[in-house]
Amino acid sequence: MERSFFYDYQLSRNKSIGILSHSGPEKRNGLFTTILERMADEVVLGDGGYLIELERRMYVCGDYWVPEVVLDHPEVMEGLHKEFIRAGSEAIQGLTFWTTRNFLDEQAGRGGEVEQINRQAVRIAKSAAADSVYVAGTLAATTLMGSRDKAKALSGMEAEHQLRHVGEVLAEQVQWLAEKGVDFIVAETFDRIDEAEVAVAVVKETRLPVIATMSWREIDVTSTDGVTAGECAKRLKDAGADVVGFNCRQEPDNIVNVLREIRESVEGPLAVQPWGLRSPGTTGTEFRPSLLGKNEVDPDISEAIQISRSAWRDFASAAVDLEVSYIGACCGAGPSAIRGLSDGMGKPTWVTYEHK
After folding, report:
1. Owning domain of residue 188
2. β-bridge pairing 326-327 and 270-273
3. What's 173's domain CATH number?
4. Is residue 29 assigned to a domain?
5. How far apart, in Å, do the first and last CA atoms of the chain sit?
6. Residue 75's pLDDT band (boundaries 50, 70, 90)?
7. Which DSSP category does 325 fall into?
8. What average pLDDT does range 126-148 have in this prediction?
9. Predicted confidence (pLDDT) per residue in 294-331, tens digit
10. Handedness of CA 277, 279, 285, 291 (dihedral sign)
């Protein structure tokens, strides 16, 4: 296989970036096993989507989707983490999605608070977890690679130059997440494989386990840089990802087909986190809610096409049949979605009901 750009990029950075390195598994959360050891033994249930859920509660602005709630209302953030845990989550993600310096600065003028928001997000998640569930840090596509329109996407030397900037932006974020003691990193919602490879390379310098997942709409068929889901999975594995898969932008029924393609292409643990909204064609609506730009999510529309708890239950069963090791949900999926997944996976939850 032709060597991808990220290999040269990684070699050039290993001696200069100074990222905190973990020498091996540690018992940081009282769970006795690392997340990878746990997944080797049983399917792990993740959490759901935070931004839409918090927008519905009036703590995130739907115009630009910046998780300022981490700094401005930490008690609300911790409360939502606890709701996911109560619904059955065995691993939660600190809300460090879209908390890179460039995104915070461009969207909210808060780039100067980038270190504070990343560190606080992990602190809040660890407080909610109380050593009972795993805590992950989250990396996401940086918005530095240009348009998601394939005709306008960066390529060639322009893309290679920008990827170096991506690596620098993600490296400082990973440094803070590692220093705060996350159990693993989820690098998610990447629509370009080259950017996802850089994210994995940065995380691997810490020796933390990394789950890496791609994301695009079902009508797009491939990544923005023209790579299929199966080939993306192979390249992410080659880059060093411990777990590969797909998240967001497709509803559970559609994402099962993507999972089948990935499973045919790679062996080993897979991860999946569908978004919690029905796509057009299944609801008779022409709208397609998206988190990919300003004003593209209308809460009224998203609430009208919410995935039901029973659908999540059915999806969990299908994912387990495909030997997926990490199952969660993404944008638009709240605690009730996790309860549905938990039921479908046969997991115990905090809440049970006795019918008389």
Report:
1. 38-149+156-345
2. parallel
3. 3.20.20.330
4. no
5. 62
6. very high
7. S
8. 92
9. 444 566 677 888 899 999 999 999 999 999 999 999 99
10. positive
Q: Which residues contact 190 (CB under 8 A, 6 or more apart)?
A: 140, 141, 196, 199, 212, 213, 214, 215, 223
CA–CA separation, 324 and 79 (whole Å): 28
Residue 5 lies in a domain: no
Distance separating alpha carbons of residues 10 and 17, to the nearest angstrom: 10
The reply to whether 13 falls in a domain is no
CB contact at 8 A, 314 and 344? yes
**Phi/psi class of residue 207: alpha, beta or left (left: φ > 0; alpha: ψ in -120 to 50)?**
left
HSE-CB for 352 with a 13 A CA cutoff: 5
Query: What's the pLDDT tens digit per position in 246-284?
Result: 999 899 999 999 999 999 999 999 999 999 988 654 444
Residue 356 within a domain: no
Domain total in the chain: 1
Is 245:213 a contact under the CB 8 Å cutoff?
Answer: yes
Tokens 């990447």 belong to which residue?
190
Q: Tokens standing for 283? A: 């609801």
- Given a contact cutoff of 8 angstroms between Cβ atoms, the answer to whether 146 and 193 are in contact is no
CB of 245 closer than 8 Å to CB of 324: yes
Query: In the chain, count of helices (H) and strands (E)?
Result: 14, 8
Which H/E stretch holds residue 77? Answer: helix 74-87
Question: Helix, strand, or coil here: 260?
Answer: helix
Tell me what the mean pLDDT of segment 66-85 comes to.
97
- DSSP, collapsed to helix, strand or coil, labels residue 191 as coil
Contact partners, residue 307, CB within 8 Å, separation at least 6: 251, 252, 274, 276, 277, 278, 332, 333, 337
Q: Which residue has the tokens 């115009």?
A: 63
